[in-house]
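In this section we walk through a basic example: taking a raw amino acid sequence and producing a predicted 3D structure, encoded as discrete structure tokens. The instruction is simple. Fold the sequence below.
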Amino acid sequence: MLAICLALAAGPATAHQAPVPRLQRLLSEALASQSHLGFEARRLSGEVLYAVNSSKLFSPASVLKLATTYAALRQLGPETRFKTELVTTGSVTNGELTGDLWLKGYGDPTLRSEDLGAFVAALQEQGLARISGDLIADAGLYTGPRHPAGWMWDDLGYGFAAPLSALSLDSNAGLADPMSEPPELRAAQRLSERLARAGIVLAGTVRVGRSPADATVRYRHDSPPLSEIVQRTNKDSNNFYAETLVRQLGLAQATGSLAPGTHAAGMEALQSTLATLGWEPGRYRVSDGSGLSRYDAVTPSQMTGLLVAAARMPQASHFLASLPVAGVDGTLATRMRGTRAQGVVLAKTGTMSGVSSLCGYVLPPGKEPVAFSLMINGFVGSAKPVQDLQDAVMDALVEALD
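The resulting token sequence is shown next.
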């Protein structure tokens, strides 16, 4: 599978070649329907094998995560980890901490309730039995709205549209209204419950606030490496992880007047990366990192160009490992089984009402890989018939490359 990562000689794009009849028939039938279809298949050398409506704009849905994860791997690095800390300003005397205890988040999207046991154990090892002050949740690293622009209001009640925070727990599931219970407050409350069960007395309350710059770190928890976070982002199509990566890009690359912990700074950083691929301002629109925004609009050609660049970057093996494999795992686990595409197509799916996209690679054994983007918009009803068409197109494309 990782043969795609080998350096390939760049070459100019050639004129579109005629596809095999089956592939042509499938695309022609789709173009004759009420839906709008765009498709491009391109070798990693730059040769365009086939394109139809490939320079037209489409709503991408979750295939936009390919842009976010590409930028994250390239700009942040696959070994990057995000921390969560327990910090204090007081001292521990006879088992009592004088002052407050802060739970400080640095944007780890993977922190789970079961991880909190290690936080408590660390305090016990330091002889802590009582906290004289408050337990304070510090999520000040991120500022601004917790949802990107263009997310539909009736999506916000679902887990796939959870609110963002620099201090999150369990992907903030069940927190559709952050005004009623800020995510960071719930994280601190869960820690408070763990402390009580361990016999550590909290004399004060649980609240939200900022920790002092000179606070002492009592415990540090690190996330899995970014390569694993990217894998979960793409394999499972995790919107929460994708939007966290946007904020992390902003923190790493914010310039000018934009506050580094804002969504705007993250989008500026993402678009700066896309500019290196030739994505020109005014010829696309990206409003979030997950593809859930209805404002997003990209072309199939832009997506295949990104895929070609991703396959050639030093972090390519991590990018490839993050993609669902047809008929094997992720969001493609049950698709294309028993076809030529099974195990040969690695691709990201994207699905919203009236939108279905599939972008990735065909890895024919012993032959040059091909990047493709297949985007369909404007259909009514279930996405299943559209996905069946996409699967048939993939089978036909593999056949055409044989």
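Looking at the output, two observations stand out. The chain has ten helices and 14 strands. The two ends are 17 Å apart (CA to CA). In the next section we compare this with other chains.
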